[in-house]
Here is the input.
Amino acid sequence: MITLYQTPTPDLEQSIDFYKRCGFKILSENNPSIVSDGKGILEINPAREARAGIKFYKENWEMESKELAEHFACCKIDEGYLLSDPSGVWVYLIESDDPPSYPVEENSFSLLGNYMGLSLESVSIAFSCKFYEKLGFKVVQGTVDSGWILIMHENGTGISIMKPNSCPHLFFNPSFTYFNGGKNDVIIPKIREAGVPITEEVTVFNDQGEVDNIILRDPGGFGFFVFND
Here is the structure.
């Protein structure tokens, strides 16, 4: 299975500029465009019907789509199947004999820091877990009762799922998460210098009122958590 993340855009040039400022590598400026931070690969799709979501590619999804359709609405599309997970994120199951393949680095290289995967906030962690288990994911950390789980696929895709109202800041589904091990005092100034618009400056995690975490959002609504940890 190949994983690609999709972000829509009202203006392709504007979105490409956003990702260039963030230090992403532009792998393709075609329509749609492909950008990478080394580990996370994003497709910028200017089609008016595009929505922020996850694209999973493999040759055939018939078995999984039937199992998912028992509990989740499943729509047949030309490329495969379209569903919405319990967090509201669109999930595309794309059938292809020749799925896209892009280089994945050992470490992320964008200005945002250490890429840790996708974050979702779900009305039901248990139901979300059931959804992604049908696609081959397994819980590797956390528990449903604790209000947070980390699920992983054998292809390296990681998704953190949290219960509602877990985070005292803006939360966009879906969002890439970066954990920078206390280095945000260096990373955040570089993001400012690059002219990247900051959606929220987060100060609630320290007593000094310092901006030690920030939240970004691209022109199409895809989120980014740039956190100290």
Observations:
- Residues 115-227 form a domain with the 2,3-Dihydroxybiphenyl 1,2-Dioxygenase; domain 1 fold (CATH 3.10.180.10).
- Helices lie at 12-21, 62-69, 125-133, 184-193.
